[in-house]
Design goal:
Number of strands: 5
CATH superfamily: CinA-like
Largest sheet: 5 strands, mixed
Strand content: 15-25%
Shape: globular
CATH architecture: Alpha-Beta Complex
Strand order of the largest sheet: 2-1-3-4-5
């Protein structure tokens, strides 16, 4: 799967998207920019691999402290804050653990990823919690990116 159809649908609706990624490490932004037309729809992307930069990008420290960095609540804050920061129509927030416990955040279940897509116009979240069990981080990232493409296609075809 790739982002060609998502880009086409966003172009038709004259909508934009931004991402705040953690465990995918910029993979979503990379996948978008691998397709023609990306510059028309992608406004901004941030890789906030550590808590400090999630907080600097608007995720309240209290949310991370209460729910952990690996939670849907944190993913929601990531998606909403990146959409607001970039003034984009949709924000994508991704957090989770892939094949390795995080020594800086020794909480949460390994191989669980939280995806939140925020629709700014309708003030609505689309959420997915998924388990990833591929043998490598790269394959797990690809699996998460495929899920995000599927989610965006569904949202944009509503």
């Amino acid at each position: 799967m790739d982002f060609k159809e998502v880009i086409h649908l966003l172009q038709l609706e004259q909508k934009t998207i931004s991402t705040m990624e953690s465990c995918t490490g910029g993979g979503v932004a990379n996948a978008i920019t691998n397709c023609e037309g990306a510059s028309e729809i992608l406004k901004f992307s941030a890789v906030t691999y550590c808590n400090e930069y999630k907080i600097k990008m608007g995720v309240p420290k209290e949310v991370i402290d209460k729910y952990t960095v690996y939670s849907m609540e944190t993913a929601d804050e990531m998606s909403q804050n990146i959409a607001k920061f970039a003034n984009s129509d949709y924000g994508v927030g991704i957090t989770g653990q892939l094949n390795r416990q995080d020594p800086a955040n020794p909480v949460g279940k390994d191989n669980v990823v939280y995806i939140s897509i925020y629709d700014r116009e309708n003030d609505k979240y689309y959420r997915e919690k998924m388990e990833v069990h591929k043998e490598s981080r790269k394959l797990n990232k690809d699996h998460v990116i495929d899920k995000i493409i599927e989610m965006l296609e569904s949202i944009l075809n509503m």
